[in-house]
Amino acid sequence: MRKVFLAVIPMQRSLVKFVYLSEVYPQSSETSYPITILLENECERGDDVVVITLITAGTANVAGQRYPAFKEQVIAILKEKEIVPQFVEIPMNSQLNNDSHQDVYKSIVEQIHDGDSVYTDITYGFKTTPIVIFSALTYVYELKKGVDIAEIVYGCLYDGTEQKEAKLLDVGSLFYLNSLASTLGNMPGDEGKQMVMDAVMK
Length: 202
What we know:
6-stranded mixed sheet; 6 strands; 39% helix; globular
């Protein structure tokens, strides 16, 4: 079984390191890339690790410039666990259109294999990027064999106040609620479906 870590390289000009507050990972190291918190905590010696990154193309974009530093941090984390990761880069077109979204979707689907356990960070990227990622994860979860969507996280840096804390939020439950709703929607009969959804929404 491969452990696949999927993230987006940030495009921000200024990038700050935080110790992210997390109910799941209270002892994580300072980082600018929330996906490294999952790498730090979810990888064990002997794991087969693949790191997939979405990188916005273009000479004026800083994402490509940030990627080497990101790789160095990942390598340093996994070296302590005696893991040599495989890196996969998926380019994103900075000129967004319907085709560019579909290209990223297809590339993600192609890189996730039967039996993979997938950890995802949706902190960075365009506003449409999490939708593309969720759609691709839905495809591989529903149509490939034995794919586990292990975790989906979001690094929250701004909540409308002047707070300086960074929080790591687990939004994976939303993925499974969506999958459940889809499954129930295809089942015959309304009474049983409503009972399950009522129980879930309590």
